[in-house]
Design brief:
The chain has 2 domains: 47 residues; 202 residues, Four Helix Bundle (Hemerythrin (Met), subunit A), CATH 1.20.120. It is elongated and about 85 Å long. It is mainly α. The relative contact order is 0.10. 76% of the residues lie in helices and 0% in strands.
């Protein structure tokens, strides 16, 4: 039956719960444990027949709330970041080019952070209960789509940086501007993240994909906020390294949840 229901964890979990409940009921009724287990299996039916029947039912593609929040919240956040750039975009010339560069890179960063948000949500959710198969597929599709979006937006934004930087700075590597170099680092990791999401798009567990996303969100914090803090320090302006350290520490704490047993909080509360 397990072979017939491969990848249908929610069905197997439901059958297991039903079987345990039946065994408990028979045991409380006075049946010996071994006899109760056999009787419960007989009432449940032959495993091969059960597997064949459940295999006929297509798995549902149930939406997962964090995925919905990621798309809706991401769209609102993107709009709030791009709209202030509109005057520069409409101005034309170098100002328009710079605004396009900034807008694309920021949107790419937001896409990467959204993958990190999904990763954090998954790591927390797995402590209580596993996701249904449809929810796992929804999560995998969202992670892959956002990763591809992050690569496209960050890549084009970095390319625009190559175009406008010679007009503003001198030298190689974006004039050694730490923020531009940070964007290039984020782009490289986004490519790694996209490759990992593509490779694991049909995996039964999205854990590896989610860890890539969480590391990607750390890369954005360091390449965006961290690089900005370094740039401020180099120019004698106040640099908020404490905020960067706090955010990265929180992300590392969430990453540590991957080492906790799945369902451990559900068992503790049972």
């Amino acid at each position: 039956m397990a072979t017939q229901l491969l990848g249908r964890r929610e069905v197997l979990d439901e059958l297991e719960d039903h079987l345990r409940d039946e065994v408990d009921a028979l045991t409380r009724a006075g049946h010996p444990p071994d006899e109760a287990a056999r009787a419960a299996m007989d009432r449940l039916g032959a495993p091969s027949d059960l597997g064949a029947e459940f295999a006929k039912v297509p798995p549902t593609s149930a939406p997962w709330l964090p995925v919905r929040l990621a798309w809706v919240g991401g769209a609102l956040l993107a709009a709030s970041m791009v709209l202030p750039l509109w005057p520069k975009l409409a101005a034309g010339g170098l100002a328009s080019l710079l605004a396009t560069h900034m807008g694309l890179v920021m949107l790419g960063y937001v896409s990467t952070l959204l993958v990190g948000f999904l990763a954090a949500s998954y790591l927390v959710a797995r402590l209580f209960a596993g996701l249904a198969d449809g929810q796992v597929r929804t999560l995998q599709r969202a992670g892959l789509s956002l990763s591809a979006l992050a690569v496209a937006l960050t890549g084009v934004g970095v390319a625009f940086g190559f175009i406008f930087c010679p007009h503003e700075k001198t030298g190689w590597a974006f004039g050694y501007d730490t923020r531009e170099v940070g964007g290039l680092v984020v782009l490289v990791w986004n490519l790694v993240m996209l490759a990992g999401c593509w490779a694991g798009r049909r995996s039964e567990s999205p854990a590896a994909m989610m860890m890539l996303g969480l590391v990607g969100s750390m890369a954005v914090v360091l390449g965006w906020l961290g690089a900005t803090a370094v740039e401020h320090r180099l120019h004698g302006a106040p640099a908020d390294f404490a905020t960067v350290a706090a955010v990265v520490s929180a992300q590392l704490a969430v990453a540590c949840l991957a080492f906790a047993p799945a369902g451990c909080l559900r068992r503790a509360g049972a």
